Amino acid sequence: MNVEIITIGDELLIGQVVDTNSAWMGQKLGDEGFHVIWRTTVGDEEQDMLAAFDAAMKRAQVILVTGGLGPTKDDITRKTLCRYFDCGIHFSEEVYQNIETMFARKGFVMNELTRDQAMVPDKCTVIQNQAGTAPCTWFERDGKVLVSMPGVPSEMKWLMTNEILPRLKSKFRQDLFIKHQTCWISGYTESALAIKLTEFEEGLPSFVKLAYLPQPGIIRLRLSAYASTEAEAEQAISEQKAKLHTLLEGNILVEEDKPVEELIGEKLRSLHVMMGTAESCTGGHIAGMITSHPGSSDYFAGGVVSYCNEVKHKVLGVSVDDLEKYGAVSRQVVEQMALGAMRTLDCDCSIATSGIAGPGGGSPEKPVGTVWIAAAYKDKIVSGCYHFGTVREQNIQRSANMALLMLLHLLKE
Fold first, then answer.
1. By CB distance 3.0 to 4.6 Å, which of 116, 217, 254, 393 could disulfide with 401?
2. What does pTM read for this prediction?
3. Calpha distance 406→352 (Å, rounded)
């Protein structure tokens, strides 16, 4: 079942808003056996939207549209859909009551623009949006489906999960089963891993694909099997995964497609231990990654952003003599930061970073991108020096990923 995703909005084209909708939808659709063949982003121009709808209807059976359903003048998706499907528009009392209920619950006041959101195309099935005010509309033509949803991620996700995916699965017979398996790999660069897996990749069945998904400090390998039955897809994945384990031995960290900070959280929760962070060059980014997940208070005690040496000494207890002798970017200092975090935050394990994120501040001995990382758990501590590059944002992310991976290795041991 081929699917095209269309996202609408000038803000997406100019980079003011990042399109996270397509990524989320693509993953969920793939998990349910739908094949996303195209992703299109268009601005708030009627002719461009009409062209996108027309092209999508020619190459896909299902078209999922998000964006442009708000109450302001630049939100023209509903009007454009009426033109595309050659239909009028009418007021829906049911939609209006849904909006009234939502506004009353939030304590908002209705106005004429809000009332306009109850106007719906004549040739559609209206699906009530229980997460927002703009309704979802479902169109059918020549055996194909076009669904228009709000661009607000929380509203789109509610509609996809509770309404759209169940309806699509009910309407279209599933004749292709897709099974994915993701493995997190450490200890390889992308090119080195590709060389290592050359024979493995060449020997894959034609219906099994291998994809390399590199991230700073980590590589995700994704096996995908496309088969006529679910059992066939699962068997193929199981067989190829076993071969990967033989080839890569201890370099496979986990077999789940989850962010590394979520994997750390699960491990900490299973061990019933608390962690803390002591960050210099990452400036609190690691703590932000961890606390972005619900329930992180179960295992995260807190963090210290020790950007200057005075904080490293006064809060974390780093030796002034070591700071002067070895410098802030050193094994001696970063290990003391990790131990100081455990002591200050009264936690069982910690990670610490100290480096030169750039673009300035480097030296011949310690160029930009030099980062020392330490991880501590109870009475054991490990550390390492890394050279990530010259781009500040990448250095911060790579340092964060590597620090979390270092602790994950330590916890697994």
1. 217
2. 0.72
3. 10
